Here is the input.
Amino acid sequence: MNTTTLTSQDAALPSAAKIRRIIFAASIGNALEWFDLIVYGFFAVTIAKLFFPATSEATSLLLTLGTFGLSYLIRPIGGFVLGAYADRAGRKASLLLSIAMMMVGTLLIALMPTYASIGVLAPLGIMLSRLMQGFSAGGEFASSTAFLVEHAPQRRGFMSSWQFASQGLATLLASGFGALLTSTLSTAQLESWGWRVPFLFGLAIGPIGLYIRRYVDEGVEFKTQARSEAPVRELFADQKMRVLLSIGVLVISTAINYMVLYMPTYAIKQLGLPASTGFAATLATGFVLTLVTPLVGHLSDRTGRIRVMAAAAVLMLATVWPTFVWLTHHASFSTMLAALIWIGLLKATYCGALPALMAELFPAQTRATGLAVSYNTGVTLFGGFAPFVITWLISATGNRLSPALYLMGCAVLSLVALLVARMRLGMR
Here is the structure.
């Protein structure tokens, strides 16, 4: 099965104006989804104090990060439901449902009273909100990636690279809020109302995404292919190996993503730096991801995906340990900034080609389902619980270099998956 073969209908490339509209329509909702998820991780220390009080700060933080990870357990379910819905009813229908659900979950977090006001209902409410966000995000990546690549099959790398570029934009916005709020507000102000501001901002973007998505057509590949009545059954009957490979190539990407999200907490708890330092350094990472990812996506359309991704994964494996050694021995704003810019550059290089490769592993009839199942399984196993696992490893071993070890292991897994995709399936 060659999933990259183009039909005659693919010959006409959409106009530049239409491509911009398609990219904006898919990216703005994706940026919103990721902004809301990232903000929760960035303000984990404050949320822990307000909603998960415990006998020790470490326990409180673990409960907060555990809730962060818990929402990822429902993502595969959201992926199954919304991915299959996208393959049957269309990418637009799934995208509209996904963004609406995310808005409801974000609104609940923004308005939730603290533990001091309503007791145990507060953490339960946060957990419910995170579960709603997780279910919603379960279908977002798959539907928006399929939506992007199917509008311009000749430029799949460039089109789908905006999937991760928009995540970089979300990181940029969330980091900007974190840096601004932690540097200008007192601790009392931040805990009283400041932490709610980014969530309220996230809600303001929602209606824009909903409006635009309603007035953009489906992609040519989806409209010209017969639709599967049972995409989940077809996927697991004939494409199990492709699902496993899609999970494998995603591993290092999602691990880096959630390690970056964890860095403000790492700066506070392990390096003794002010919160604004971590946020400002992560802000620079957001710039790198937003600007570099589309360039790499365009490059991958010319040179192939695997060559670019393998080079980035090898560099990650070779450099992440010395980067963290340097960071922990010379903890400062400048070293954290340099470390995260380097890691962000490697992530952008890897992720620029990643969504196109994942999309090309599946035919159009099961593409959204295949992407949803593999993406959410990989994110749940290697991303959502990454902050929790790293925090636990540091606590259990006393080794502040645990994030580096985690990333190195993930890089090895992704390199193996890339090799198998190249040798067994002839992917390029």
